[in-house]
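INFO worker-7 received task bundle
INFO bundle size: 2
INFO processing item 0
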Amino acid sequence: MTVNASELFDRAHHAGLRAGHESTPAPMVVGTPTDIFGSEIDNSEPTYFVEGGACGFAGVVINPARGKFVSFLKAKGLGRKHYYGGFYMTCREFGQSLVRKEAYCEAFVDVLEELGISCYIDSRMD
């Protein structure tokens, strides 16, 4: 099957959006700890409910960094060289939610791998 780079991006992006919206991150409460171990939150201090769960970054690494799809991403300004080689396209969706960003990237990678593009997910908690 022949798919142009723009159509491939749209397909992978929409699959990623769907996966991100369907994911269910575990919410967290952030506050000031009562001791240095952080085992309890000091309720006399402000607390914040973070619906999206843990914060972090996620992206898709395409390696090797060549081909029509990588050229398309470069032309659109949708990524950069990855530190360990390849081309890195960060997930710009879902604010700071690591779970939703990883779900997006997993679906994105699935679409690319169907067409034989070698890629993987790179993520880290913030």
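INFO item 0 finished
INFO processing item 1
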Amino acid sequence: MAARNDDELCYVATRTFDAPRAMVYRAWTDPKQMAQWFGPRAFTCRCEGEARPGGAYRLTMIGEDRVDYPIKGVWREVVELERLVFTMDLSEHPEEWHDIIDPKRDKSKGRKYETVTTVTFAENAGKTTLTLRVRFESKELRDRFVNMGMRAGWEESFDKLDDLLSIS
């Protein structure tokens, strides 16, 4: 997986899967399939929602310690087989996680970390190149996520996705 910060606000990762674009796209839009691969290897996941413009979704990653890491969002764009754009709201993650991401935050203002994620799918000779672009509110926030292990988390998720695609 190639990963980079291509501008001040974005984290970008690219991976080519040995599977047709329709299969990779379905793995992102079918909640049952997404629950099988989303999150690092040490996590399981529950997923619900409908991939349609304006549709809501909810993922809950569950750590080995049985701590829940909920993510909710809205599908902004759903262009079949080509592109997905959605928000990721991490405000319901545990307080300890928020303390790691921003130890100096003003706790009286609540917890809100919302990113906008764009996923594109390009097929070439039966393989699919997926590009993930996560846009943050600030460079500092992006860097905190990257330093906390965002790259490793996406790499492990993509490894799990690769495993799922190879048995489908």
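INFO item 1 finished
INFO post-check item 1: DSSP finds five helices and eight strands in the chain.
INFO post-check item 1: The mean pLDDT is 91.
INFO worker-7 idle
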